[in-house]
Amino acid sequence: MNCSNCGSRISTLKCEYCGTLNAASPQQKAILSEHGKKRANLVEKLKTIEKMKMPESIKQKKVEVIQKQIIELDNHKLD
Ligand SMILES: [Zn+2]
């Protein structure tokens, strides 16, 4: 989406360029809520893995995979 104030391409409601807090459309609200749920799930998974007993190298790999998924989510919020 684009910022309603300066027109910059933005991926979060708050514009990184001018700081305007843009209003979310119903569709975007749905995306954000879905995104929040997915993210919460991934964070939970991460916590679970950290508590699990497994070789450190395997744990590290699992953690990396989930961290990547979280970053992906954060990067594609409102596309
Ligand atoms: Zn802006």
How is this structure best summarized?
This protein has 79 residues and is mostly helical. The model has no long low-confidence stretch (mean pLDDT 91). The chain is 58% helix and 0% strand.
Task: Give an account of the 3D structure.
It is a single chain. With 79 residues, the protein is mainly α. The protein has a domain at 26-75. It contains 2 helices and no strands. The chain has helices spanning 26-51, 56-75. Helix 1 runs antiparallel to helix 2. The longest helix has 26 residues, at 26-51. The termini are close together. 3% of the residues are buried. Residues 3, 5-6, 8, 15, 17-18, 20 line the site of zinc ion.
How do the strands and helices of this protein lay out in sequence?
Layout lengths: L25 H26 L4 H20 L4
Helix pairs in contact: 1-2
Bound molecules: zinc ion (ZN).
Zinc ion (ZN) binds next to loops.
Count of separate DSSP helical elements: 2
* Extended strand count: 0
Overall geometric form: elongated
Query: What is the succession of H and E elements?
Result: HH
Low-confidence stretches: none
Please give the share of residues in helix. 55-70%
Kindly provide the radius of gyration, computed on alpha-carbon positions and rounded to a whole number of angstroms.
16 Å
Largest sheet descriptor? none
Structural class: mainly alpha
Average per-residue pLDDT, rounded, comes to 91
Give the end-to-end Cα distance, rounded to a whole number of Å.
7 Å
The percent range for strand residues is under 5%
What small molecules are bound in this structure? zinc ion
